[in-house]
Amino acid sequence: MSDAATPTTAQLLRLRAEQRFDQRMVTRLQELMEQSADVADGWRMLKADLVSRALSPAPSAGAPQAQTRHRGRPRRSQIAAHLAACAPFPELALTTADKLGPVIRRIDDAALLRASYRFEWEHFKRRSVLREIAARLRRLGEPLAGPISEPIPSYASKPASELVILLRSASADLAADVYAYEHYRQARPEVLDAAQAVAGALALKRVEETREPRQPQLPEPFPGYDNLVASPQGRQEVRDALSRLTLKELAAVEEYERQTRNRKIMLKAIRAAARARSRRA
Questions:
Q1: Residue closest to 94 by CA, chosen among 83, 104, 107, 86
Q2: Hey, what long-range contacts does 26-30 have (CB within 8 A, 24 or more apart)?
């Protein structure tokens, strides 16, 4: 290999520095995540992208260097735009909870409302928004869960006796759809029995597939966590409990809180405990 093709020490150091994980940038991202819980999923996606870029193999010496680092502060507008593009309607990701009520009350599409409920549950878990969507569905006379479209044309206008006759020659898949649709609406025993007789276990499976999102049943990250009170009166007890945990345990507690009650006070306390633990390490 000629001397011209051999990278100098300075070149190697520069390439290594460009690929090194920038801890200060990640710390800044974590601080920004704390300031905006509504776009936490977007920040986590951006952080994961940063880590993957930082851990990617270094380019060969002499090769043109691609932009592998994020420069400056990530734009909140870009993350909000990404979530808005995924939302059933853009306002769900771009509007604060206190201003979403009038928007939701103008929606008459039950399918859109159910999709909005699932999106809200998966990304933000704002309780006031979830209650508003459920209340709007009740006003429209639609259940929160269950299949969206009728399994049989003009299903709502058909009497139970006619549906029972139709089910005798129906496929198991259609009978399962009828069972789930009927289960979440009129729940007429004769229709349910006729549908289950044809669909068998598939009927109950279809009911589970169309059930409304439920709070996950996860084990406590440590004994007594669920009894901690997220209030000014219970603040000291929360601090004492969290101060005894390691960084790994605090990360598990934060994930548990996000997947269950998603209380902003608790999340803030967990992050403060993690920062304090990092300073002591």
A1: 83
A2: 26/50, 26/51, 28/73, 29/74, 30/271
Burial-class residue 73 by CB neighbours within 10 Å (0-12, 13-18, 19+): exposed
Q: CB-based burial of residue 236 (10 Å sphere; 0-12 exposed, 13-18 middle, 19+ buried)?
A: exposed
Q: Nearest 5°: phi and psi at 258?
A: -65, -40
DSSP single-letter state for residue 139: H
Pair 182, 192: CB distance under 8 Å:
yes
User: Which structure tokens are listed for 13?
Assistant: 């150091």
Residue 66 DSSP symbol: P
Distance CA 36, CA 43 (A): 9
Which stretches in the chain have pLDDT values below 50?
1, 21, 37-39, 51, 54-55, 57-74
Burial class (CB in 10 A: 0-12, 13-18, 19+), 115: middle
What's the length of the chain? Answer: 281
Centroid of chain to Cα 17 = 35
Tokens of 124: 């933000």
Whole-angstrom distance, CA of residue 270 vs CA of residue 260: 15
147 close to 180: Cβ distance less than 8 angstroms: yes
The pTM (predicted TM-score) of the whole model is 0.47
